[in-house]
Design brief:
With 152 residues, the protein is an alpha/beta fold. The chain is 49% helix and 20% strand. The protein has eight helices and five strands. The chain has a five-stranded mixed beta sheet, with helices on both faces. It is globular, with a radius of gyration of 17 Å. The protein starts with 9 loop residues before the first strand and ends with a helix.
């Protein structure tokens, strides 16, 4: 066994910045769980294999993934857990969450993560339901700035 504390645990894989972004939420989420913090921006892109290896070696009872919504780096953690399930070829007891605007925890579907990897599908959804962009405008500083630049 590679890491005894992980064996049969309830595993929380969270963005390394979550304890800074919302310490109370992090404390609540980590209660009773074995916590692994990761930052795809600071670390090499080996999360896919690393998470699959942890799962294969330790067989956690459950996996909870929590990242910061809108972060292009954090998305890799969400995708890594889906990919680990694919690599292992077995259904994992997992839940995916994002923290919206540093405060609100929202559960997301593993399929939302899968779709987000295929930009041509995302583009089609935006063309068919452009009102989604109103929601984006509420949360994304980058989007609001892009809209202002377009107006110039």
């Amino acid at each position: 066994m590679k890491a005894p504390p992980l064996k049969g645990s309830d595993l929380l894989i969270a963005s390394a910045c979550l304890p800074l972004v919302n310490p109370e939420l992090f404390e609540k989420l980590s209660k009773g769980k074995t916590v692994l913090l990761a930052c795809p921006e600071r670390e090499p892109p080996t999360h896919y294999g690393k998470i699959a290896s942890i799962i294969r070696s330790s067989r956690p009872r459950s996996i909870t993934v929590v990242t910061i919504d809108g972060s292009p780096h954090c998305f890799a953690l969400q995708a890594s857990v889906n990919e680990a399930e694919y690599i292992l070829g077995e259904k994992l007891n997992k839940k995916h969450y994002v923290v919206v605007d540093s405060t609100e925890l929202k559960e997301i579907s593993p399929d939302a993560i899968r779709v987000a990897r295929y930009l041509h599908i995302v583009d089609r959804v935006l063309r068919e339901t452009p009102e989604v962009l109103h929601e984006l405008e509420k949360h994304s500083i980058e989007y609001r700035q892009a809209k202002m630049i377009e107006k110039k």
